[in-house]
Structures are given as C-alpha cells and as structure tokens.
Amino acid sequence: MSGRLVLAGTPIGDVSDGSPRLGRVLAEADVVAAEDTRRLRRLTSELGIQLGGRVVSYFEGNERERTPELLQALLDGQTVVVVTDAGMPSVSDPGYRLVAAAIEADVDVTAVPGPSAVLTALALSGLPVDRFTFEGFLPRKPGERARRLGELKDEPRTMVFFEAPHRLTQSLEAMAEAFGADRRTAVCRELTKTYEEVKRGPLDELVTWSKEGVRGEITLVVAGADPHKVLTPEDLAREVAKDEEAGTPRKQAISDVAKRFNVPKRTVYDAVLAARDPGK
After folding, report:
1. Which of 86, 98, 104, 255 is buried most deeply by CB count within 10 Å?
2. Which distant-in-sequence residues (6+ apart) come within 8 Å of 268 by Cβ?
C-alpha cells in the first residue's frame, strides 16, 4: 500500500492562524519536507507541536533531486507532508513536481487548507473578485516583464501578482506603462502581520508612494481591463508598434492585434497607415 502526500498550508503572518489539523498532521507525519527547516522548527515550537517523523529540506534548489526520494517514501507507505515558508505549497513555491509525480504513481494526494495571501489580498483590495487570475511573480528582466504585461493589458479579470519589495516601483511603473496610469490597484503588504498595510489607488499614485521605500511581503491586486473601452486608430497603431519593437514582423503584428482586440485586420492596417502618414 502506498502512503499519502499532504500539502499543508501554513500561516502567512500571524502564527495563531495555524489550525489544529495542521498541528496534528505535522505531528503524525513520517516525513516533513520543508522549504526552510529552521522556519519549520520555529513554527512548531510556537504552536507547541512535537514532530515525530524525520525532517528534510525541500526548496527550489534541491526540489528536482529530492522529489524521487520523497516519492519512494510515499511508495513505501509513508505519509509525507510538504510545507513552505508561508501559504500553500506548489503555489509559487516548491511542491508541484512531487504532486505530479505522486499522481502519476497513483499515490493519494490531499491538502490541509490554510491562509492564502492571494485570497486575503483579493478580499481586502476593494476590487471585483467574482473572476480573477493569479499571475505569480513577474519576470525580473525589463523586456520580459514588459512583454508579459503587454499580454495582460486587455485581461478583463482582476489580476493578482506577487512581488519583492526592491522591485515594487519598477513593476508598478511597468504596469502603468502597459495598463495605463489610471488602472486601479491595491498594494497589500505584510498581510496578517503587525504592520499590515493595504495601499489603494491608481497606478501613477502608487508609483510615487512606492518610491519612499516599501518593506515586507507584497501582493499586488490590479483591476482588469474595461471590456467596453473603445480603441481608437491611434491605440491600434501603438499596439502594432509595440509588437514590432518586440521583434514581430509588421504583417504578423497587424494580424495579432486584430485577433487580440477582435477587430478586422483591415481596420488595424488602415490605422497603421494613418499613423505613418497622418495627412492622408
């Protein structure tokens, strides 16, 4: 009989958010795979949990190599619990590889729900939450980041991102460039912690605010695009120009923009011609 893989959500800030079930699962596990073993020890100490199984590190740097070892423990009938520094494993954190391997090997996979920075930030943002998309961390390189945001410019759902404090201003500036300076956004930092703060406003105001220096764990919630916004010929020409700057041939860029905004290719073509020769 194979064992069971348990993904255990841990507190994102306030340690008292740890559930009794989390404590019971950790205490009964044969193996606890932790993103940071020191933080795990601190968490169990604060919650008064006595670990009975062995503890191994399981983080981005060794996830690929350690997954077969953990899978073998599961196949041997052991219960393996995966925890990360905060929140749910596999969501922008280690865990996905082991989940995929366990499912492939027909091992039972379950979860202990816990606090979520994504859902907490959405609830506090004041933005629509009936439909949303989680985008994780943006690329670090400016060009790649701009391309990713360009793909999301017309996303109608509310968007959630994670970001590091030292890259916050650059990301907000890139969002203002891609989405428009007036796009409503909420910067949520240190959720459930002592210095929790939610700063809401248009992107241009948040760029100015962020330059004063922002610390802590950050989750960004950005309003989706207005589906009723009418694009002018100038808007269409700018979209084609952006695609061309990214390396797309003009003919393909015109076709891509037409599909992206659901307008005839001829309309986009005429907009590009008008932008090249405003007198006609």
Report:
1. 98
2. 236, 240, 254, 257, 258
C-alpha 147 chain-centroid distance: 16
- The model's pTM is 0.79
8 A C-beta contact, residue 75 and residue 2: yes
Q: Is pLDDT at 22 greater than 80 in this prediction?
A: yes
Q: How far apart are CA 185 and CA 204, in angstroms?
A: 10
Q: What does residue 13 show for φ and ψ, rounded to 5 degrees?
A: -165, -75
Q: Which two tokens stand for residue 143?
A: 């060009």
CB-count exposure of residue 174 (10 Å: 0-12, 13-18, 19+): buried
Give the sign of the dihedral formed by CA 150, CA 154, CA 160, CA 166: positive
**252-275 residue pLDDT tens:** 999 988 887 778 899 999 999 998
Amino acid at position 90, single letter: S
- For Cα atoms 5, 8, 13, give the angle at the middle one, nearest 5 degrees: 165
Alpha-helical (H) ranges within 105-249 are: 117-125, 142-152, 168-179, 203-210, 233-245
Alpha-carbon span 222 to 185, nearest angstrom: 4
Q: What is the pLDDT of residues 188-205, one digit of tens each?
A: 999 999 999 999 999 999
Distance CA 35, CA 43 (A): 13
Q: State which H helix or E strand residue 221 sits in.
A: strand 218-222
Specify whether the CB–CB gap between 11 and 114 falls below 8 A: yes
